[in-house]
Amino acid sequence: MGELKVKHIAIAGNIGAGKTTLCTQLGRSFNWDVHYESADDNPYLIDFYNDMRRWSFNLQIYFLHSRYRQVLNILNGDRTVVQDRTIYEDAYIFAPNLHDMGLLSTRDYENYVEIFRTMTSQIRPPDLMIYLRASIPTLVDHIQSRGRDYEGNISLDYLRRLNERYEEWIGTYKEGRLLVINSDEVDFAKRPEDLGEIIDKVNGELHGLF
User: What is the mean pLDDT of residues 111-120?
Assistant: First the structure.
């Protein structure tokens, strides 16, 4: 077998959009490895939710580095990997949102952006980016049904701000192939036919890459 053409599929979307579920399903369907966003071993997450201003920079740097390491591993590996959330979301969605909310100082934010630029100059974008678009009610429904303690106090305003940033970023995304899926209209967790449609769409995008 020649060099693996498609190495990196990434799934982007707001908190509760269904990224982890879709990652798992695509990994199973295509026999891809899955790189999850691990919240469990993040040493800053609980502190961040208790005191966002104090811990925002630490948290963002931790996420940025772990995502960068994931991408390097994907590019250096010989397996196709589907990734739960991307390095771009850290830099274009979460960090500027914290800065806008006054929870990340301008000095820290500018430092962060420079680190991101240096890192992304050394890697290539995903072969296929899948964006899960979801309205606030869908996000809230998913967040409540999984019942993670630290997500219990996420405000609607916070989710709305993130959604606006997501739409802005995706509207200008030109780094590579993009597939947009509307999470309001499909239930790939519970409806096999919805998952089947998504798999067909992903297959269509991948064939265009060969």
Answer: 97
